[in-house]
Design brief:
alpha/beta; FAD/NAD(P)-binding domain; 5-stranded mixed beta barrel; flavoprotein
Length: 319
């Protein structure tokens, strides 16, 4: 069980590294296929500061932490599935399978087990623009997922803060929810003059001066203060962090990655190394909604189960 009431087995058919929606969905479906499954979760969810997650059918507005807790309880309810809190330090080849080793966290046992198959579902880490008070408003008035939180911020004067080359694209998307939007590049030259003109035609401003801080009163964001002291009133907005896949523990496997470091897989989540799969945000195109990650986990579970049987997923249509 999650709090590790009994010792771990020495080996499993499948070890899932990561206990978010992608990893737990993978584990749930494999448990129902009667596979012996271990989920190893580092218990450091990226969305820990987010109060509500949206767009998840039957769970719209659920706390992401509650969603993870309910998922762990559902997986743990199966006798052939176990969830533990541990930070995986190394994933290596061991004989014809794999070895997964890590140190327990939050009362979880240390992990040192082997598996026939491994599913990587560790998601991404995110680096925010270097602005002192961003974290004070992140998850309440400032968000990173437009599709997840655009509806709640609709009709308000919003900021889009970031330093990446896709700011203009994200600004265009945000115009579906607000007609009062300013893009803050924090001194980075990532919005071209052509993009700025296109945004201006839609009423979107571009502020290129560096940001001193985000300001507010009694925990409520009121504006963005620039380095020269100018305060631009804003009621909330969106950040564009820099996301990086959390894959350091798997470096020894030398898995194929794309130019941004995400694992390259086929449509069913198979990586370049047979027996290793990936689900959710560790694969391109990167961060997605929670329900999309859960769906990816179900897809990967079907592929894993069929591969363990020796039945290729692509052959299912002839049965």
């Amino acid at each position: 069980m999650t709090e590790e009431a009994s010792p771990l087995d020495a080996s499993y058919e499948v070890v899932v590294v990561g206990g978010g929606p992608a990893g737990l969905s993978t584990a749930l479906n494999l448990a129902r296929a009667r596979r012996r499954v271990l989920v190893v979760d580092g218990n450091r969810p990226r969305h820990a500061a987010t109060l509500r997650a949206h767009g998840f059918l039957t769970r719209d507005g659920v706390s992401p932490l509650d969603l993870r807790r309910m998922g762990r309880e559902e997986v743990d309810a199966y006798d052939n599935a176990t969830v533990v809190f541990a930070q995986v330090a190394a994933l290596t080849v061991e004989g014809s399978g794999f070895r997964v080793a890590g140190r327990g966290v939050r009362g979880g046992a240390d992990v040192d087990v082997t598996a026939e198959t491994v599913v990587i579902a560790t998601g991404v880490t995110e680096a925010m623009p270097a602005i002192p008070s961003l974290r004070a408003y992140y998850g309440t008035q400032l968000h990173s997922c437009v599709e997840c939180d655009g509806y709640e911020e609709a009709g308000r004067p919003l900021a889009l803060i970031g330093e990446t080359a896709d700011l203009a694209e994200r600004a265009l998307l945000l115009t579906q929810w607000t007609d009062d939007l300013i893009v803050f590049t924090n001194g980075a030259g990532t919005v071209t003059e052509d993009e700025e003109r296109a945004l201006a035609r839609l009423g979107v401003g571009v502020e290129r001066r560096r940001i001193d801080d985000v300001v507010g009163e009694k925990g409520v964001m009121t504006g963005v203060r620039l380095e020269d002291g100018t305060v631009v009133p804003r009621a909330g907005g969106f950040l564009r962090p820099v996301w990086s896949p959390a894959l350091g523990f798997a470096d020894a496997l030398d898995l194929d990655r794309d130019d941004e470091g995400y694992l390259v897989t086929d449509r069913q989540g198979r990586t370049s190394l047979p027996g290793v799969y990936a689900a959710g945000e560790t694969t391109a195109p990167g961060p997605q909604q929670l329900i999309v990650a859960a769906g990816a986990g179900a897809t990967v579970a079907a592929a894993v189960n069929r591969d363990l049987i020796g039945l290729a997923l692509d052959d299912a249509a002839v049965l």
